[in-house]
Fold this protein.
Amino acid sequence: MTNPTTEPDLPEDSAADPEASAAVEADVETGGFGIEGDAVGLERIHVTSRSLELPKREIERLNFMAAREANPEHDRNVGFSARVWAQVTLPYTDPGNVNSWVRKNGPITLRVRPAAFTGADGSEQVVYPYGILPRHIMTWMATEAYRTGSPELILGSSMNAFMEKLGLSRGGKNRVRLRDQMQRVFGSQLSVEGIAFGQPGSGYGMVQKYFPIASETALWFSENEDDAVEGLWSSKIILSDPFFTSIQQHPIPVDLDVLKHLGSAPLRLDIYTWLGYRLYNLERPTRIKWADLYAQFGSQTKQIRDFRVQFKAAMLAIQALFPAVRYEIERDYFLLYPGPLPVPETARRYRIKG
């Protein structure tokens, strides 16, 4: 098996090594899911910007993993994601002026309709949630709902309290962005479509489930952007019954410290969550078509070739924080191997930090 950290990309006009492919008996999936890993040891050193010419975020990752390897029994900062976000994803960039936005994963289709609301200046806005912040918001909501067992979530008496829970800095720019994306998330309408089969000979049909993220929101923000100024009242969200039920019945564990160190690239967070979902039931090496992964994750890139490059870069960043993952890059397939989960099952019993 080729080490994925050193394996070169295969050119589009060449085939994968037939002997290498023949050495691995792998299922071929047509609907896109996956995960796993080789243990990659980290030298137990503390890295500083003076010792290596590396970006600050990369240095933070190295030090985080070195500390984790030195103390493998540490208390993990466990959070949760709703299962739907391991199957389909929200937009990475603003879809713009379109009636709906669609993401597909095999027979499953997510259709997002934009939020419509009146802005503080009285203007009418029709907008979509997109980028990294909606993903952090969704993770925080799923974690709080699972931890408290209640659909009513208290954000805190100020934007700062909420931002701290998401691991975001307190700057005024982040506050404005977060406020904007919260309105987009809570105002959008989602529908999940799938093929339903009846009894043999009775045919098939389509099943659609429609659900908003929240059934009620009360978001209070201070007009003064000073960090010390509290909001007017305590902001809260009441999750819709379908969304809350999905979190309670099918939570996907995630390591919140790993999410933080994956940075601001939403594709990395989506793949990491997907890995935790897919690996849970992965029993044998499985090949997934790039075309299927492209439909699930990368429809906002122009070509599958471009998406494959982005996916590989995201996997390298994930592997630095989840070194047990094992995979191979082939011309037409992404090959996944069974192995440990990103969050060990024993970690589920650890205290979920508030």
